[in-house]
Amino acid sequence: MPSPLASVADSALDAQAAQELRGAEDAVRAFGALLAATRSAVADAKGDAPGEERWVVAQQAVSRLDQTRSPVTIAVTALDRLRIDAANRVPPVDTARLDAAWQRATALQAELEATFRPLAEALPTG
Length: 126
Description:
By secondary structure, the protein is mostly helical.
């Protein structure tokens, strides 16, 4: 019976995975920097109708916060693509670092979503 092919290290793949994860982590820091102000704006607008001044300020804060999440989604998508590409390589590539970066990025994405959603849903839409 033939032995399974050993996986090989790919430093370029590991570097790409690390770069994507850094981008996601930078976005998390940007999200954190805006979070307190956004929470405050949303709390100040509680009970205000859409279009009222405090509601507009809160909606703008929520929109800015939402924009900071985009690099995390981009990183997860890029890491997904790298994982698909790596799965099709011959000889097989060691994906331990790539898989760890993907797991961390998807966890960050879930954390941001869990924090963001209640703020977005707190503002009436009309």
